[in-house]
Q: What sequence folds into this?
């Protein structure tokens, strides 16, 4: 199975109502590491975070000098270029994390709520490599994770039968799962060890024959990046694809049932999970466009007829946000803490 389909199947398997699952997230402090999957386990202040916004709060807004006390001029509250500061402040206002106030002739913002630092408890980073016979940069990727310590645990997920030779090539703290995406069965080959997320770490930036470039990372830098990873996972989730406009895309017919419930891009013609952008379209022999007979994804024909929530071919339409809300701890429609949506430019 291709890595994309493997990854979606694993995300569907790991998703549950008391957890957040994110996919393809930046997991480096100074380097370019991207982790395939991240599990975010809620902490004691999770409900307070969920009440603010279903989207990612800009990291610079969280890290700024803006708080729920006295309003601060935008130019003074951020340690970045003024234009960047303005854009971040505007976005935070849109999300209800900041509210607008006026200080003299300057645009100013005040926090609507104290950011709940303890909204997440632990982070588990998962690297997917279905075929261990084609490891690519796997060893260096896992070494970065183990030595940096951004995640509480790190796991390698594979479809390959895992041998002792495979295990010997991996850093000792890394756990190993053998996962069958077609059945949803998962075997724990090796339990992961807990990493030191509270102390400093070492980040591998580059490696060449006979030479490696590494940088020390402080505990404060790790705390900041862990928060950024958790925030991005909360806002982004893992359903970053759009279902193709093809009658053969029938998520409700996916196998196993876990895939059907998760709304994965299942192709009934090929009987497999597909990458909508790369695999679907007129070049595919099985492609049948929904609009060929005036059909739409919402199930209405050209005259507006059709059952709500169903497509004209009889299959159920999929609302990714509704599926995510039902299957995870993510709150799509929170009460919020501030409902004023106007931008900052009215004060300029």
A:
């Amino acid at each position: 199975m291709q890595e994309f389909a493997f990854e979606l199947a694993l995300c569907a398997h790991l998703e549950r109502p008391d957890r957040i699952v994110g996919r393809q997230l930046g997991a480096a402090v100074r380097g370019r590491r991207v982790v395939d999957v991240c599990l975010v386990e809620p902490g004691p202040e999770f409900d307070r975070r969920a009440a603010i916004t279903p989207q990612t709060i800009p990291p610079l807004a969280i890290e700024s000098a803006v708080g729920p006390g006295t309003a601060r001029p935008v130019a003074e509250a951020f340690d970045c270029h003024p234009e960047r500061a303005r854009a971040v402040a505007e976005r935070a206002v849109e999300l209800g994390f900041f509210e607008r106030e006026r200080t003299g002739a300057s645009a100013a913002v005040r926090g609507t709520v104290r950011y709940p630092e303890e909204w997440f408890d632990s982070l588990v980073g998962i690297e997917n490599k279905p075929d261990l016979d084609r490891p690519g940069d796997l060893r260096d990727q896992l070494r970065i994770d183990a030595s940096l310590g951004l995640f509480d645990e790190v796991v390698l997920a594979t479809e390959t039968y895992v041998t002792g030779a495979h295990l010997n090539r991996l850093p000792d703290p890394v756990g190993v799962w053998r996962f069958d995406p077609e059945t949803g069965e998962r075997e724990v080959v090796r339990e992961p060890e807990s990493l030191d997320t509270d102390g400093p770490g070492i980040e591998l930036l580059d490696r060449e024959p006979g030479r490696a470039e590494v940088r020390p990372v402080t505990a404060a830098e790790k705390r900041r990046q862990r928060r950024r990873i958790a925030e991005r996972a909360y806002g982004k989730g893992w359903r970053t694809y759009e279902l193709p406009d093809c009658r053969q895309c029938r998520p409700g017919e996916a196998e196993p049932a876990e895939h059907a419930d998760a709304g994965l891009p299942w192709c009934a013609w090929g009987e497999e999970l597909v990458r909508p952008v790369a695999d679907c379209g007129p070049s595919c022999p099985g492609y049948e466009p929904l609009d060929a007979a005036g059909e739409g994804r919402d199930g209405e024909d050209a005259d507006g007829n059709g059952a709500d929530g169903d497509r004209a071919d009889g299959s159920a339409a999929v609302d990714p946000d509704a599926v995510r809300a039902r299957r995870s701890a993510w709150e799509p429609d929170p009460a919020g803490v501030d409902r004023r949506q106007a931008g900052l430019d009215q004060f300029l």
